[in-house]
Amino acid sequence: MKIAIIGSTGLIPRMYEHKAEMEAKGHIVTLPLFDKDSDDELHLTRVNKTRIMESDQVHLIWDGRSPGTILDIGIVIGLGQALKIIYLESMSIPGIVKKYAELFENEID
Prior knowledge:
The chain is α/β, with parallel strands linked by helices. The protein has one domain (2-102): 3-Layer(aba) Sandwich (Rossmann fold), CATH 3.40.50.
């Protein structure tokens, strides 16, 4: 299965840890491009959109503060991709994301 991880730059170590766990289970996992990877926001958005489109599942690791992750979540919802929350700090927007991901709980292991 192809998994795209999206999330906050401040949680990169947690993303790498989750990536290793999923790869150990035989999944193909991609990490997002971050602000530090390019100063071209449009390029970042296009690359991350492609990763999301090509995935079977999107795993979210988000502290609720990253505006780039909000954009990525919008892409996930807009494309109707399956979303699994790995880590999410609670607040209003994450609450909506949590409810959306719950729609897929029986479909995602």
